[in-house]
Design brief:
The protein has about 350 residues and is mostly helical. It has 16 helices and no strands. The longest helix has about 30 residues.
Length: about 350
């Protein structure tokens, strides 16, 4: 992986890490469900008007949009609105990776290797420790936001599996069309739970300092985190193996926790930093592909055996070689897609000489 692409991967991780700070600023002005509707509507409208629909079945677009766009952000935004620390949210959301591996085994019948099982166990241990620690703070009031964020990670995993099943030849176009799904159901949910008065009130004070910061955070989420970040990451996933690119996403919680501490003065207990490092280590371990066994050398045959074999070959017609069976995606590729939000399937179209 050349230095330029490494720097681009670090840039994308930084953009995604700062996105949690942008969400924090936007939630200070907008109700959470209405904010999700706004976020995706700003992408969906120009997408419908200007971008051709990807050549995939509608069920995968709907599944991707419902899991990644609706379920993930319903729970994540609600968690952050009810007290989930910004930096901790960027870390706990990494639970999407072990969720994806487990769901891929159940839904797609993919084989779980020992290394991936160990990585899942390590990540679950870290996440469980964070949940137990939060349950002991403030009489358990901080446990619910952690649980909601975990549900957001589960929604992300469901969306990633639908994305993977779509097998889109142009994954970024699929990412854009996924944004068409969330606006209407999220607006309906906002009207039903938050009410028209809360929506109108959030739109009336946009000229204030808080309102301007909220709009800036929303624009950052749409333009930088979604369009720029996803576009660059999709390009990197097409150039290099997913196992090379995916580990850079582990910089996201590092940036998220660091910026929340630096700019928001959010304290992060040492025990949660230690447990969070277990989550990161587990995701890294689980996203590494299993080692393939080298082919065993075939025993050399004597010249007499070769001549007898040649004689039989000339007398018997050799059947045509059957076409190779399609190979299903490995759990490591699905994990890479979960960590990045961009399909790793594009990598399979590259030749061996292109994977440098």
């Amino acid at each position: 992986m050349p230095l330029r692409d490494r720097l681009l991967a670090v840039l994308v991780a930084g953009c995604w890490g700062l996105n949690f700070l942008a969400i924090h600023l936007s939630l200070a002005q907008f109700p959470p469900f209405f904010l999700v509707a706004l976020r995706f509507a700003l992408i969906a409208v120009p997408t419908v008007l200007l971008v051709p629909r990807p050549d995939v079945a509608w069920r995968w677009i709907l599944g991707y949009g419902f899991g990644f766009g609706v379920l993930q952000f319903v729970f994540l935004y609600l968690a952050m609105d009810t007290g989930m620390p910004t930096g901790l949210a960027s870390l706990v959301l990494q639970a999407s990776a072990p969720f994806t591996v487990l769901l891929a085994g159940l839904w797609l019948h993919e084989r779980l290797h020992a290394r991936q099982a160990a990585g899942i166990a390590l990540a679950v241990l870290g996440l469980g420790g964070i949940a137990v620690h939060r349950a002991q703070l403030d009489g358990g009031a901080t446990f619910l936001p952690v649980l909601l964020t975990l549900c957001g990670g589960l929604g992300w995993a469901l969306g990633s599996l639908a994305n993977r099943q779509a097998r889109a030849t142009e994954p970024f176009r699929l990412t854009l069309w996924m944004s068409v799904v969330p606006p209407l159901p999220m607006l309906a949910l906002s009207l039903a739970t938050e009410g028209p008065s809360a929506i109108v009130g959030s739109l009336s004070g946009l000229g204030s300092r808080q309102g301007l910061l909220a709009v800036a955070g929303l624009l950052y989420t749409v333009l930088v985190a979604t369009l720029l970040g996803s576009g660059l990451w999709t390009t990197l996933m097409a150039r290099h193996p997913s196992s090379t690119v995916a580990p850079f996403s582990m910089l996201v919680p590092v940036v998220g926790i660091g910026t929340s501490w630096l700019l928001l003065r959010e304290p992060t207990p040492v025990v949660e930093i230690v447990l969070g490092s277990l989550v990161v280590a587990g995701v890294l371990l689980g996203s590494r592909p299993a080692r393939s066994r080298p082919a065993e050398p075939r025993p050399a045959r004597s010249r007499s055996a070769q001549s007898r074999s040649a004689g039989r070959t000339s007398a018997v017609a050799i059947p045509a070689t059957p076409s190779p069976r399609p190979v299903s995606p490995s759990p490591s590729d699905v994990v890479a897609e979960t960590l990045t939000g961009a399909p790793a399937a594009a990598e399979s179209t590259l030749s061996a000489s292109d994977r440098r």
